[in-house]
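Q: I'm building a small set of examples for a reading group on sequence design. Run inverse folding on the following structure and report the sequence directly after it, with nothing in between.
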């Protein structure tokens, strides 16, 4: 059976990720815990966890509200992503001839193709973000480093939110697709000399767009 604090965490996380909570509204912890049917203590544990992960802010004596991303949030998110993903793509590129890497590259090509299909059909930012996140997650998970995966997951909400905002810009879907394709092709060719720069450019471009939006 799933612990109550984990149930509360998953419930609130789903509400946030599905856009069910308004960014302008302060929500009562008491009311939300009653709606879920979970007592205040495990619910409070979930709230503190979500606050630590950057999903929400706790407003003393009032309740909780969605966290509004700041310049520092953007910088920290892309600094962490760049450190992890540039390292991982470099290691993958160094092992390009290995069978497990070839399997990974095949999966990444599939995800890149899905980005292209969405771009040419529904143009759905939500669907595009789903495959975009899968693309980057597979790169991190290939390292087999549990700490990398844990850190990456902690930034999931920020990454998703920032991606959605940047993809609203005209032409950003196409640029994102091309940047993903460039990363895959560089890894496939074993281009150790340029893969770090190519991956970092992808991060820096998105970061610049998000900072300009502020």
């Amino acid at each position: 059976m799933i612990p109550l604090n984990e149930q509360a965490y998953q419930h609130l996380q789903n509400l946030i990720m599905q856009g069910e909570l308004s960014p302008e509204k302060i929500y009562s912890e008491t009311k939300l815990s009653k709606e879920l049917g979970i007592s205040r203590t495990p619910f409070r544990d979930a709230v503190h966890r979500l606050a630590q992960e950057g999903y929400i802010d706790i407003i003393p004596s009032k309740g909780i509200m969605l966290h509004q991303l700041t310049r520092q949030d953007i910088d920290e998110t892309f600094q962490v992503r760049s450190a992890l993903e540039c390292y991982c793509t470099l290691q993958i590129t160094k092992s390009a001839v290995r069978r497990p890497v070839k399997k990974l590259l095949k999966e990444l090509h599939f995800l890149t193709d899905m980005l292209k299909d969405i771009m040419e059909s529904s143009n759905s930012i939500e669907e595009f973000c789903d495959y975009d996140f899968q693309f980057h997650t597979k790169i991190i998970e290939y390292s087999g480093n549990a700490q990398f995966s844990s850190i990456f997951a902690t930034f999931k909400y920020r990454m998703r939110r920032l991606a959605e905002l940047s993809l609203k810009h005209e032409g950003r879907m196409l640029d994102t697709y091309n940047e993903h394709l460039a990363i895959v092709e560089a890894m496939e060719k074993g281009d150790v000399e340029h893969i770090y720069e190519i991956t970092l450019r992808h991060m820096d471009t998105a970061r610049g767009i998000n900072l300009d939006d502020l």
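The chain has a mean pLDDT of 94.
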